[in-house]
# Entry
Amino acid sequence: MTTDTATRLHALGERYFVAQHTYDPYNATLLGITEFDHLPGDPSLTASERAAAELDTVAQEAAALPGEDLDEAGRIDRDVLVALARGAADDARYALWAANASAKGYVSRQGLVFQAVPAMTVPDTAAAERYSARLAGLGAMFVALGERYADEAAGGRVPTRMGVLHAVEQLEGYLALPLAEDPLLEPAHTSKVAEASSLVAQSEDLVAQSVRPGMAALAEALRALLPVARDDEHVGISEVPGGSEGYVAAVARHTTTDLTPDEVHRIGLEELEGIRAEAAEIGDRLFGLRDFTAIATRLRDDPALRFRSSDEIMAVAHDALARAEAVRDQYFPADDITDCAIEPINEVDAASSALGFYRPPAVDGSRPGTFCINASAPETHYRYEYEALTFHESVPGHHMQLAMAQRLDIPRYRRHLDVEACSFNEGWGLYSEQFADDAGLYSDDLSRLGMLSMRAVRACRLVVDTGMHAFGWSRERAVQFMLDNTATTDEHVRSEVDRYIAWPGQALAYMIGRREMLRLRTGAREALGDAFSIRDFHATVLGNGAVPLTVLADAVTRWQQHATAAV
# Structure
């Protein structure tokens, strides 16, 4: 639809896209968007304030656009843009990351560098120039990041001791690597440009003379904060000035709902009760055990349930993906998306990484959509977790959803979303774990029990995240709650809890999104009866790309109405 209002909406969408990815250029890289690859990022308070102001303006102007001048697709675009811009403005305004130094990717500025730069591709001279420009600015960025942490601490927003130690350990790990093995040089080593050898030499010089000294300066700045850092009794973001308000905003952004921390906490407790009942049925068949604690202990402690090699981990992932691909067209709209690649996470990052994550394909086709899997230290990983993980990250999860979204005829500020639409993206990932069970894709009861174990982790997130950030729980209380209510190890639980500490609110997205998608599916099935089509339902859910849950509910309601009228 072409109207003055539609034109203004398009321009506002572009302003949002540029402002958001200028402020957070590494997320753009991870989403496969290359035009911001030259930016090293600006971690200063001025940059945060500038981004918040611009994003606030976009949200206000978009909200004021008259809906009667837009068609249905335009109204969806407007509603999504308003939600995205408001959430991103609050994220920049409160900048909770600046009060929470950590090594965790996405939320950690240094972690984003270590995750995104190795994923860059250099297929041509323009890409090589962007890569070189980013490397040239990284040293100063690391120095500025240390200064931002120091300024925040001086104002009372001190990081956690645990987060500082993890960040320093990550930096020291990189600095200890031989230059030739530095992951930040990977794009140069794999470059396809004619002058690749000179690019490698130039990049090595930048890393040695600028980037690594900047890392060392950041590590030193972080060490200086240890005497004042928050201890494990005070890990919640509400412990710092503005933290309580920032957490409420983070809950709203990551769930795209108006749920309060107290409501989210209670939902988590309710979900855990339901999981215990399901686990009892499977545990009885598998082990002759119905008590959840006994089942969890067996899963956690039986060495036969762990992997023996990294190759075994990779094989489980490849086999699960193959089964999902074989039935994809039966349950989901046909779409000629590219195949999902599977690759192990870099050894250096594996120690601080989750079990796996998805990296979308590059827009220019130079990089495939990839399920990055933690296959290091296989004896610490459980056989029963990796099928659910694969369905979550590849097909029918993130790969199918995000690759399809990139091909939709929607504005680019909507086509490339990850953390900005967490409740949809992660809700779909967790919904996919459940739907894989509905479709009979799990190989056995053990893997189905693994699915429930991982769902229990997501339910615990609702309780633990709100517990620490809204209700003053200590780190140890959070760890103990997860040990009591999941089958995961102490090491994994601590890694999970540390992630929630570093990234307040994000972990709530998974279960809240899943619950809403299941609620909508149940309502549609009951309303339509024999006319209900799971394929059409999934086409409706995925057909607008990632959207706030309120926008998703409106879309499903309209589909139900049309389907009812057609009967």
Observations:
- The chain has two domains: 4-240, 248-258+303-461+506-514.
- The first strand starts at residue 341 and ends at 344.
- The longest helix spans residues 125-154.
- The two ends are 29 Å apart (CA to CA).
